[in-house]
């Protein structure tokens, strides 16, 4: 069952994963979730956070590889140089 949930997260868009993660944070901050449920949703939140970080890193690498100029791609530049 945990594998199915991990696969579910792996197919989520960044926006969907972030939205669900924000919902989990709100539930945990409210403090009215039973302990067992808190642990379960915390674990899902950790998986969602890792997924979001991975998607952001992938996007960052794409930006670093291609910088578009007026005449098309002009080579490799770091995103920090933009």
Feature tags:
82 residues; mainly alpha; two-stranded antiparallel ribbon; 3 helices; 5% strand; elongated
Strand content: under 5%
> Into which percent range does the helicity of residues fall?
55-70%
Strand and helix order: HHHEE
Can you count the helices?
Answer: 3
Give the beta-strand count.
2
Overall residue-averaged pLDDT value: 84
Shape: elongated
* Biggest β-sheet strands, sense, barrel: 2 strands, antiparallel
Tell me the structural class: mainly alpha
Report the radius of gyration as a whole number of Å.
18 Å
Number of domains: 1
- Numbering strands along the chain, what is their spatial order in the largest sheet? 1-2
Given as residue ranges, the uncertain stretches (5+ residues, pLDDT < 50) are: none
**Roughly how many Å apart are the termini?**
43 Å
How would you portray this structure in words?
The chain has 82 residues and is mainly alpha-helical. It has one domain. The chain is 70% helix and 5% strand. It is built from 3 helices and 2 strands; from the N terminus they run αααββ. It has helices at residues 2-10, 14-30, 35-65; strands at 68-69, 72-73. A two-stranded antiparallel ribbon has the order 1-2. Strand 1 (68-69) and strand 2 (72-73) form a beta hairpin.
Summarize the structure.
The protein is mostly helical and 82 residues long. It contains 3 helices and 2 strands; from the N terminus they run H-H-H-E-E. It has one domain.
Helix-strand layout with pairing:
Elements: H1 2-10, H2 14-30, H3 35-65, E1 68-69, E2 72-73
Antiparallel strand pairs: 1-2
Helix pairs in contact: 1-3, 2-3
